[in-house]
Amino acid sequence: MAWLTLVVAGVFEIGWAIGLKYTEGFTRLWPTVATAASMTISVILLGLAVRTLPIGTAYAVWTGIGTVGTAILGMVLFQESADLLRLACITLIIVGIVGLKLVTPH
Asked: What is the pTM of this model?
């Protein structure tokens, strides 16, 4: 259950990272409210996950999910570069996340 909680926390991290773009420097009310809510939910869920998962692993996986998801959505939503080297680096992050999951005994 802790891993599922951590994955959901990572999804909310993607939400607030992408939400930052839509707040336009926190000048738009509803995107700002949604971003702040997503931040709060993400951190709370991370806190719940680390009750049983090692903090180093959980934090690395949480940020990795956020990094990969945000990078991919940046390509899709904001036409950011999707060149081969960038995709290879994202793949390395995914390999790291999976590796941490495989070596963590929970």
From this structure: 0.90
